[in-house]
């Protein structure tokens, strides 16, 4: 990403005056996405937003769960020695209760296909926080209201037409341009996007020009969509 992530004027005007997630005074910076969703070496220009320490840390366990759940689904196992990502192997080894929690949700359907029961609440919390962070980072806008929709589904289960719609991410003709000086404005003026790749094959996202929809893809596997009214 060529945009200077720390030197845009709306950061001082809005973003750094309050926590991105609750409006308390910010006393830390939060990575969006968290590093558990990425591989080392991490990108040199990881996205950060202002946050209070409480919001920065309060759903770390949920982030670990989501990262491990995605990797276990990809590998077809919750056994540490059978997952490919070193970071996830370490988490599952150090937190055997988490590996057991994931394994207890595994079953096979009538055709013998392995199916994972995913806990909705922790996944939802992580996706909402990610979406709020991306809207703030790209547009300098706050999205503290409850989203209208939070959805996630493996890319592979989408039909060809559904996949095309998800990946295409076109805006209505009269949606307008984002605020002058915002990252979204700069990206559009450079004809970049629409998808912003944080780490190839691991994490990408897109924010609409009104900041009311965010789409995220985790590990080229999980397609996520968060919408506000």
Describe this protein's structure.
This protein is of the alpha+beta class and 229 residues long. It has eight helices and nine strands. The strands form three sheets. The protein has a five-stranded antiparallel beta sheet with strand order 5-9-8-7-6, with helices on one face. It has a two-stranded antiparallel ribbon with strand order 1-2. The protein has a two-stranded antiparallel sheet with strand order 3-4. β3 and β4 form a beta hairpin. The longest helix is centred in the middle third of the chain and has 20 residues, at 120-139. Mean pLDDT is 86; it is low at 1-9 and 171-175.
H-E order: HEEHHHHEEHEHHEEEE
- Shape annotation: globular
Radius of gyration, in Å, reads 18 Å
Mean of residue pLDDT?
86
Instruction: Determine the strand fraction and express it as a percent band.
Output: 15-25%
Span between termini = 30 Å
């Amino acid at each position: 990403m060529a945009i200077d992530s720390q030197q845009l004027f709306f950061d001082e005007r809005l973003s750094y005056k309050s926590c991105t997630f609750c409006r308390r005074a910010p006393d830390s910076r939060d990575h969006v996405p968290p590093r558990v969703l990425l591989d080392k070496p991490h990108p040199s220009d990881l996205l950060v937003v202002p946050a209070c320490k409480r919001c920065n840390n309060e759903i770390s366990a949920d982030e670990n769960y989501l990262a491990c759940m995605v990797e276990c689904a990809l590998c077809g196992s919750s056994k540490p020695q059978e997952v490919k990502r070193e970071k996830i192997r370490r988490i599952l080894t150090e937190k055997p209760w988490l590996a057991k929690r994931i394994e207890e949700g595994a079953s096979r359907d009538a055709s013998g296909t392995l199916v994972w029961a995913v806990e909705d609440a922790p996944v939802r919390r992580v996706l909402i926080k990610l979406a709020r962070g991306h809207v703030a980072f790209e547009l300098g806008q706050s999205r503290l209201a409850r989203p209208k929709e939070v959805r996630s589904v493996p890319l592979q289960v989408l039909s060809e037409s559904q996949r095309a719609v998800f990946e295409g991410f076109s805006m209505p003709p009269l949606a307008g341009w984002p605020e002058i000086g915002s990252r979204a404005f700069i990206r559009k003026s450079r004809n970049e996007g629409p998808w912003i790749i944080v780490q190839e094959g691991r994490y990408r996202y897109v924010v609409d020009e009104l900041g009311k929809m965010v789409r995220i893809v985790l590990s080229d596997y999980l397609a996520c969509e968060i919408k506000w009214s």
